[in-house]
Write a structure and sequence with these properties.
This protein has about 475 residues and is an alpha+beta fold. It has four domains: about 120 residues, Alpha-D-Glucose-1,6-Bisphosphate, Chain A, domain 4; about 120 residues, 3-Layer(aba) Sandwich (Glutaredoxin); about 35 residues; about 140 residues, no CATH class. The chain contains 14 helices and 19 strands. The strands form five sheets. It has a five-stranded antiparallel sheet with strand order 1-5-4-3-2. Strands 8-10-9-11-12 form a five-stranded mixed sheet. A hairpin with a 4-residue loop joins strand 4 and strand 5. The longest helix has about 35 residues. It is globular, with a radius of gyration of 27 Å. About 35% of the residues are buried.
């Protein structure tokens, strides 16, 4: 059996389970109505309200060769998420050596199901909604935003980018975007300004009019394809999606009553015991899968940077459609947000998981440093961690460890000399008390000091400016 197409997506909204099942059943009725199902097109369905797994498997004979086409839809509900898996397979039916067709674009009827699930789940990838639309970069800001999205550490899906400047027609199209829904993002760069802005911020000539570029996630090198047609690049992306599919080892559902037990002997007590045993067995069978999925998500979200960034870049928040970009477009020059005070004002308006103490604004306004974009980048990741802290995804006792792992050049505290001799430099008034903002982040000549209110789990940005006094300043 060969998997020729694969697509998977997960959402934390487990309430969408029934809606997803209804979507699959509607698709099944459209493609294989009950009155047209025969022995040559078997349809197997696994469905129970008490079963964590929903599955539909359809097998269709291929009249052109001694093989059958299989379509399998699986929906798994775990303790953390709802996982959807769709696979198209080629299954030989006779002992004959057949051509190995490794990749297939999804047929229109299969693509319809993919598009409906993507629209239903509304999953975001590095703050960008996963959809079947083409992102257009036509000016300096949108070119920079696309480059920032390309370098977002939490991005999970690849980006397919085509420069369409001066072309009579684009090689990739809305049909390409639909075929790659849930597999890759598609973007068109439609001006020389956007092309130059992307490459300048990305730091290399990654995109150009002579080729199509795939920007892979997690630090993998970009890949360029000649622009004859989009078949090769689409096949590569579908193959990558197939290769990333989880291994599904699904045990058949157990009956409610064990073999050999007389129904008359069933009591509520032993039925509850049986159901409990069945639940525990299901949990054990699929725990490995759930842990793999969770581990994959965690690793995807890890920051691929291991050292201080060697160039300024816009943060992924600029790519979010929820960001009010009007304020950004007011400054049509590459130096906008380079000033620390500009970056701090912007961050205080956009990063809602952080509390900006008045001193952070006054201190940043007094500095003449020009590494504002780097400051903005650090605040972006701190804002993400603060959001997880407020939502309960991150325990307060793990906050310092999370900052250490996720933010380069994070320092969890200050030295004894700074505490004893220069405490006033690090102190802020917070809710009627004087507290010390000890955790800090180094950003070249600048420092970001903040305070963690462990009672409310608020992260208070206390100071942004030049190095404060400590033993090194004596």
């Amino acid at each position: 059996m060969i998997t020729t197409y694969g697509f998977s997506i997960a959402t934390p909204n487990k309430d969408l389970r029934q809606s997803a099942i209804d979507t699959v059943f509607r698709w099944l009725d459209d493609v294989h109505p009950h009155e047209k199902r025969t022995n040559s097109t078997p349809v197997n369905i696994r469905h129970s309200p008490n079963d964590a797994i929903f599955r539909v498997d359809v097998l269709e004979q291929d009249s052109k060769q001694a093989a059958a086409r299989g379509t399998t839809v699986t929906l798994i509900t775990s303790k953390d998420e709802l996982y959807f898996d769709l696979r198209r397979t080629l299954r030989p039916t006779k002992s004959a050596l057949l051509p190995r067709r490794t990749i297939d674009r999804p047929e229109p009827r299969l693509n319809k199901l993919t598009l409906e699930i993507v629209k239903l789940f509304k999953v975001r990838d590095a703050e960008k909604l996963i959809d079947a639309e083409i992102t257009i970069a036509n000016d300096q800001l949108s070119g920079q935003s696309l480059a920032a999205f390309a370098e977002a550490p939490s991005r999970r899906l690849p980006i397919l980018i085509e420069v369409i400047v001066g072309k009579p027609a684009a090689i990739t199209s809305s049909a390409t975007a639909k075929h790659l829904a849930g597999i890759a993002h598609l973007a068109h760069v439609s001006s020389h300004v956007a092309d130059e802005a992307f490459n300048n911020l990305y730091g290399a000539k990654a995109i150009g009019s002579g080729w199509i570029t795939v920007i892979w996630p997690r630090g993998a090198a970009p890949e360029k394809f000649h622009q004859q047609d989009d078949d090769e690049v689409v096949n590569q992306l579908i193959a990558a999606s197939v290769g990333s599919l989880a291994t599904l080892q699904l045990t058949p559902p157990k009956s409610r009553v064990e073999t050999g037990i007389d129904n008359s002997q069933i009591t509520p007590a032993n039925l509850i015991a049986h159901l409990t045993q069945e639940r525990d067995q299901l949990q054990e069978n699929y725990q490995g899968l759930y842990e793999n999925l969770e581990l994959s998500d965690l690793r995807t979200a890890e920051i691929v940077e291991s050292a201080e960034m060697d160039r300024d870049k816009l943060v992924a928040i600029l790519t979010s459609p929820r960001t009010d970009l009007a304020a950004v477009t007011n400054a049509q020059n590459p130096d906008y947000l380079a000033r620390v005070d500009e970056a701090v004002i912007f961050a205080s308006q956009k990063f809602k998981n952080l509390v900006f103490h008045p001193r952070s604004l006054t201190s940043s306004s007094k500095t003449e440093l020009m590494n504002g974009k780097r400051i903005l980048n650090k605040l972006y990741y701190l804002n993400q961690i603060a959001g997880n802290l407020r939502s309960g995804k991150l325990l307060k006792q793990n906050f310092i460890l999370e900052c250490t792992e996720q933010i380069p050049n994070f320092i969890p505290s200050i030295g004894a000399d700074a505490t004893n001799q220069f405490a006033q430099d690090y102190a802020i008034e917070w809710k009627g008390e004087n507290v010390l903002a000890k955790p800090h982040i180094r950003c070249g000549d600048a420092r970001i000091h903040f305070y963690h209110d462990t009672q409310t789990n608020e992260i208070v940005v206390a100071y942004i400016g030049r190095h404060l006094r400590d033993k090194s300043t004596n």
